[in-house]
Amino acid sequence: VQLVESGGGLVQAGGSLRISCVMSGGTFSRYYMVWFRQAPGKEREFVARIGWSGDWLLYADSVKGRFTISRDNAQNTVYLQMDSLKPEDTAVYYCAADPLLTPVSYDYWGQGTQVTVSS
After folding, report:
1. Eight-state DSSP code of residue 88
2. pLDDT by residue (tens digit) across 26-61?
3. What are the CA-CA distances from residue 1 to residues 5, 18, 39, 90 (Å)?
4. Angstrom distance (rounded) from CA 92 to CA 68
């Protein structure tokens, strides 16, 4: 299984960005998909999760109401729509996949995509 993120970039505070993660080599519809992020000098943190059929939604408090996770099983793709972006959202964003809802560790990770929010 491979995960490849895309769509990162530079955006001004208050702006929007949508990042994507495409899975290959696996049955996408059988995986819970999760977005994490890691800012410079900080630990990686959970951002959002989505279940097989778009259920089991969960968001970090820091992004609730601003970010929306979604998936397209026909395209093997999970998205993260990020609105009302803040400079503190600047990080490398990673997608991860696992067949379990709450795994000890995620089976598969992407390489990350950089999101930079300027003030």
Report:
1. G
2. 999 999 999 999 999 999 999 999 999 999 999 999
3. 13, 23, 26, 27
4. 17
Query: What is the sign, positive or negative, of the torsion defined by CA atoms of 9, 14, 15, 21?
Result: positive
- Tally of residues, the chain: 119
The token duo for 47 is 């951002």
Four-residue CA torsion sign, 105, 106, 110, 116: negative
Asked whether 35 and 66 are in contact (CB, 8 A), the reply is no
pLDDT at position 104? 87
The pLDDT confidence band at residue 79, using thresholds 50, 70 and 90, is very high
More confident residue, 92 or 100: 92
C-beta atoms surrounding 97 within 10 Å? 23
**Of the candidates 80, 112, 118, 81, the residue with the CA atom closest to the CA atom of residue 4:** 112
Residue 117 contacts by C-beta under 8 Å, 6 or more apart in sequence? 10, 11, 12, 13, 15, 85, 86, 87, 88, 89, 90
